[in-house]
C-alpha cells in the first residue's frame, strides 16, 4: 500500500530515495534547510546540483517548511549529514507523532558526543519507531534505477520488515537486520577507509595497496564495532564489507574523491570544499579516533588518516608508519581471544 513519506534533507541521497519512493507510487514531500535549493528543485523538477537530468514525477512534492513535510506523514526519512542529524531531528520533533516511523540514512558518528545517530534518536525519543537504512548505494546509481541493495536495521524486526516492503522495488533490494550497532558503525567507519583508499590512489599507489587498505580496514572496523556491541558477522555483510568495497572503488564516492585530491597533495580542507557535498569521513575519522582511544582498541589506519587530515604528517609518512609497524600474525585478535 502506498505511504505518505517526508524526506528531511534534499541532498543527493535524500533526492535519490525520494525519486525511487515516488516512482513506486508513494506520496513524498521533500524539505531542506536551504530554501534557495528548494526553489530550484520546484522550478526545475529535478535536483540539478546533485542529480542532474533525473526528473521528478508527480508524487514528489517540495515542502517549504518541516511542518509541511512531516504533517500526516507515516514515515519520516532523515537524509541530512550525520553532524546535522541532531538539529534535523530537533526541528521535526514538534510535528512527530508516536506512530510515525523514523528512518535515518546518514552515515556517521556525532563528533562532539561520539554518539551513534540511533543513540541520539533514542535519547530524545525513547520509544521511537526507528530504522537505519544503509548499504552499498551511491545516489547517482539509485537515481538512475540501477540495481542496488540496502539493509533496513531495527531492534524491532517487524519494523525493519515494514521499511523493507516500503522501499523495495524490482531493482532496489532491501534486506533486514537487527544489529543496529553493527549496521550504523559499518556505514560510518567505511568512509574513513575510503578516504585512505583515495589517498593511496592519489599518491599513485596500485591495486595491491588498495586491497590491503580495504582488508585491514574492515578488520579494524570490526574490532571497534565488536567492542562497542556489534555482531562480527554484520561486518562481512552489505553494510560492512559491501559498503566498504563500493566506497573505496567508485568515482561516485565523495570520500574517495576527497582522498584522491589529498593524495595528490591538496590541503584536506580545500579537497573537502572542492567535493561540494558532505565528506562524512572527515568528521567520522576524528570521532572514531577518539572512540578507539576511549575503549582501548587499536585502529592503525584510522590513526594515520587522522594524522594526515589534521596535517600532523604527510601521506607518505603515514604509509611508512603503517608498513613498518611491529610485525604481527594476520589473525592476532583471534589468538588473543583463545
Ligand atoms: N550521496 C550518497 O550516495 C549517499 C548514499 C548513502 C548514504 N549517504 C549518506 O546520506 C547523508 C547525506 O548525504 P548526501 O550525499 O545526500 O549529502 P549532500 O551534501 O548531498 O546533501 C546534504 C543536504 O542536507 C541538507 N541539510 C543540512 N542540514 C540539514 C538539516 N538540519 N535539515 C535538513 N536538511 C539539512 C543540506 O542543505 C544538503 O542539501 C550522509 O550521511 C551520507 O553519508 C549518502
Ligand atoms: O559518496 P560517499 O563516499 O559519501 O559514499 C556514499 C555511500 O555511503 C556509498 O554507499
UniProtKB/TrEMBL annotation:
NADPH binds at residues 12-13, 50, 107, 139, 254, 278, 280. The active site is at 190 (proton acceptor). Keywords: Cytoplasm, Lipid biosynthesis, Lipid metabolism, NAD, NADP, Nucleotide-binding, Oxidoreductase, Phospholipid biosynthesis, Phospholipid metabolism. PROSITE patterns: NAD_G3PDH. Pathway: Membrane lipid metabolism; glycerophospholipid metabolism. It catalyses: sn-glycerol 3-phosphate + NAD(+) = dihydroxyacetone phosphate + NADH + H(+); sn-glycerol 3-phosphate + NADP(+) = dihydroxyacetone phosphate + NADPH + H(+). PANTHER family: GLYCEROL-3-PHOSPHATE DEHYDROGENASE, GLYCEROL-3-PHOSPHATE DEHYDROGENASE [NAD(+)] 2, CHLOROPLASTIC. Catalyzes the reduction of the glycolytic intermediate dihydroxyacetone phosphate (DHAP) to sn-glycerol 3-phosphate (G3P), the key precursor for phospholipid synthesis. This is Glycerol-3-phosphate dehydrogenase [NAD(P)+]. It comes from Sinanaerobacter chloroacetimidivorans. The gene is gpsA.
